[in-house]
Amino acid sequence: MKLLHLFVVGIVFVASVTARAQATEQEVSQIASQDSASPESAQSAPQQVQSTKKTENPPEPESHGTRLRWHDIPRNVVHEQKAIFLSPLHINRNNAKWWILFGAGTAAFIATDQTVSNNLPQQTSLTTPSKWASRMGADYAIYPLWATFYLVGKGGNKPRARDTGRIGIEALIDADITANILKLITQRPRPEIKGQSVAFFSGGDAFPSGHSIKAWALARVASREFSDRKFVPILAYGLASAVTIARVGGRKHSPSDAFGGAAMGFFIGDFVYRHHHAPSE
């Protein structure tokens, strides 16, 4: 149980670091924009601040500059899958710290997965929450639930809500495809029976956790789209962490399955957002 507690602490720590890093990036960009302002623009700062509050998030440098359309998603997914599986070839100084953090964390959990399976009780306090997480994270539930963002945005003429719905659905599709391909490759059994081997390439579909990868992909999209509202990243990462922890405590996945899925989902959600976010018209 001590190892499970360490896993919980690790997930919470990563979620807090992620939320703080996102807040820091926003503060740095705000300071940079203020420093680059001319004296004339400084005089009109009150008017700019007032108008900024009414605008939505600015476009990312890599975004298309136009809003994502539903019929673009299939073509986008093909290009994104190529980018996802070739991403290890594009590690650089800017993203190396994240690869090291999540890669080392996943490796550490892999080394202790069997010990956790051998010592974790067959029934835990997270068994019931895990069942609910399974139902809510299933495709028949999570896709319609997330689509409500689009319906609310469409009905209320809220472009950001519509964007969140479309970008989230695309991130879900990417996460689903990535997880299923890796499950076929890794062939890892689930730790549903105490003491049962969780070795890779032994037949199974545990790595990575599909619920975890989808929860974190959506959490990243929501956190970036509503980054101006501090409670959204905290809530989004908190819910994603709860899903990840429940999957381990309910013996549906080993710690590395859930943590690795969380890392992949985070990067997938971030990638899709950066390439398809655009400001309101």
Characterization of the model:
There is one protein chain. By secondary structure, the chain is mainly α. The chain is 71% helix and 0% strand. It has 11 helices and no strands. The N and C termini lie far apart (52 Å).
Specify the biggest β-sheet: none
- Structural category: mainly alpha
The helical percent reads over 70%
Q: What's the structural domain tally?
A: 1
Our estimate of the beta-strand percent is under 5%
Number of H/I helices? 11
Shape: globular
Annotation, overall tally of beta strands: 0
The helix/strand order is: HHHHHHHHHHH
Q: How big is the Rg? A: 20 Å
Runs in which pLDDT lies below 50 for 5 or more consecutive residues are 27-54
Distance between the termini: 52 Å
Can you lay out the helices and strands and say which pair or pack?
Blueprint: H1 2-35, H2 39-43, H3 45-52, H4 73-86, H5 96-119, H6 127-137, H7 139-156, H8 159-186, H9 210-225, H10 231-249, H11 255-276
Helix pairs in contact: 1-10, 4-8, 5-11, 6-10, 7-8, 8-9, 8-11, 9-10, 9-11, 10-11
Keywords summarizing the entry:
281 residues; mainly alpha
Quick synopsis:
Helices cover 71% and strands 0% of the residues. It is built from 11 helices and no strands.
